What does this fold into?
Amino acid sequence: MDRLVNFSTTVSWGITDPQRFQQLMDEAKSLVTGGYYLGDNLFTWCRNNSALEDPAFIRALQTNVQNSSDEAIAWRRYLLACSASHAIHLNGDFVECGVYLGTGIKTVIDYFGKDRFDKKFWGYDTFDYHPTKGHDFEEQRNGLFQKVKERFAEYSMVRLIQGLLPESFQQGCPERISFLHIDLNNAEGEIASLDHLWDRVVPGGLVILDDYEWAGIYREQKRAEDRWFQDRGYRVFPLPTGQGFLIKR
Ligand SMILES: C[S@@+](CC[C@H](N)C(=O)[O-])C[C@H]1O[C@@H](n2cnc3c(N)ncnc32)[C@H](O)[C@@H]1O
It folds into this structure.
């Protein structure tokens, strides 16, 4: 009953003096009763940290870590895993727009176990370059697509499609979608993806917008998505993780 799980990383963004910030957060952690989560621009306490009490998730998260951010975003990834636990019971495929190294897709599938995951999972990305100038991630250069394909060599349910969205939907796109994760870091690509995919999301299907609740350069995404969903009679749930969440009626 009184079990407290703590989680702490040094990975957060938008900090002007990381050393001072870390000192202050170390002190702040010592002043709370426990059950804290520090990382990915979150500091919460008196939380159950359910993600870290779920052994299948911990295993999926840890075996897929490629860089320090992958650990810090545990809470965000757990929301994907929990969404997938719902969507797996619906009629429809899984889709991720913005795959990068494929860690999100692989963590979700491994959470269930690849032999028990009976959905197709479609992943769309340019892979070898980032289409928005100045946004390139480490490793985004010629050859990345090949590397990501190799990472999924044993995952026959994964369909990776290389190319610029929304044009690359012409290479293949599921008729019905139960899980839609959009993570392109730009409003134009995300709105174009919603234009193309929304009608395919089945009733009860889930949409997770990775950047929706992030401020600064990402705010344009929220503004565009709010207008887009308002026109369709929806309101996005803003999550403390920085994500946006929505259930299709
Ligand atoms: C933040 S990363 C995705 C991270 C991934 N979802 C994960 O969980 O690890 C964003 C990706 O979106 C891709 N991207 C952005 N705009 C795109 C577009 N219009 N078409 C295809 N890919 C795009 C970039 O190449 C980049 O790899």
